[in-house]
Fold this protein.
Amino acid sequence: MANTPTTAVLQAAAMSLVYENNLARQINRAAPTLQILSKIPLRGQKAVDWEIVTGSANYAATAPIAAGADVTNFNRDTITAAHLPITTYHEAFAYDGLAEAIAACSNSPTELGNLRVYEMDNASERLGSAMGLHLWTGTGANDQVMGLIDPTSGALLDTGTYATVDKGAVTQFQGNVINATTFNGGSLTPSLLRAGLTKVFKTARGSKRPTLGIFSASAFDKYAAIFDPQRRYEFTTEISVAGNQIKLDAGVDVMTFAGIPFIRDISIPETTVGTLALLNTNETMIRYLPQPTSAELMNGVNITVTQDGQQQSMGTGLTGKLMPLARTGDRAKWAIYVYWQVQCRTPNTNLLYTNLNIS
């Protein structure tokens, strides 16, 4: 067109725009608890099966015996079987051949150059986020894992049936639960924290104590002040739990009290009240079936969560199976599968505070 200079607006209509190389992700898919808990593979098992032993703490009344007397007291501890099924979780993605070809030819943004890798990474994050949520809230029904704080059968509760064991009948399998509304109107105090730890000390075998505290999101801010002057903040992306060094999302702050690190997890539901769970990470873990190998399977996919400041997806220590699905025309379809469960071997080594005042 005569006497019309080429401008950026006109040029954009004739050719693709040039974008920044890195995509600006807006989604918070952090799941620090999923990252931190140990991942223990099942070997020779089809499900998570273990046996719990309960009985009297001591038999001091029958221990003394007269010299030369016949033995008349025969005591025993009780063994109860606990069972959790392995569940299947998945996330799928698909793309058209034209979209893949355009992405491969374009230099902008470079993250889309390999469309399958881009979609696979996003699917991995979506799956990791879902697993991080159900680690806490899974109901054990509808193919879900059995979560730690499900209000009916959660592992940390002091009521209900967990892993087929009725806590009403097997009382030593009960978790330690403190409803904060019965103390200072729901306010958490250092003395109440210590009282909870003492409760665990009295009930747990070997006086095992929690090794990690996890707040719901707002509760962390609300109760940071109660740790004065004992508090300490760690502005770091690494945390040491039960002797293991774990790298977390750069947005996760760590606070310590009585030698226990405290973090927050957006996966813990929070409405008008908050929650604090103190876990013994030696007794609470992720169990999974190792991925099989066969000709039709692709390489394993690292299950990730929210990327850090360097655009690096944060690993969870779990590997998914990447499987190509049947094509429909020129559309490629893929799915990532994980076979897993959350196991709390001894609920009484953990502690759960409910109904924390966060107003």
